[in-house]
Amino acid sequence: MSVVKAIIGIAGASGSGKSFLCERFADCFAEALGPEVSLAILNEDSYYRRQDHLDLSKRAEVNYDHPDAIEAELLASQIMALKAGNRIAVPQYDFATHNRSNLTTELEPAAVLLIEGILIFHHKEILKQIDQKVFLDVPLDICLARRIRRDTIQRGRTIQSVLDQYMATVRPMYYQYVEPSKNDADVVFQYPIDSADLNQKLLKFLQPRILNTI
Where would you tag: which of 9, 14, 48, 142 has the fewest CB atoms within 10 A of its CB? Predict the structure, then answer.
């Protein structure tokens, strides 16, 4: 079983490309370091709180961009469990029903843990466990266009519902909580973001922590 040697956090606005860049980095990581060095990815979205006490229409009105919507204490404790060499049960969130499902996904500790989410730098109990903090600074009009495409294609939303949610909660919460957390980042990438450049910077960061120990 792997020992966690480095934790990288990628934050930024909704639609800034965090998940996409995590996937690209995972491919680059595997190619550069080989199968003997493991990588795991944790998505903050998995840790939205349960909303069993609300019906579907009320769940759709919840402010999911507020820090209180995330069960940060669970995410922080599971990061600590991985660092201790323990397997965790990652919650599964269903965007269609706006609620956490009863299913979980088993995740083993890995040499590198990649964490992505809009609020991972806001929650101090998560922030203090991250070794390298990356913030993706992307104009909000670009993020909105990406969010409309993603939510209408992948999550069954209407364009109007995406726009309503964006204006009511996503945009104001970005300015209140997400953008200020940029100050905690070790490196800020401005749009347009060169994924190859980001990958090389992250690999360079990992080299003294991992490459010399395998």
Answer: 142
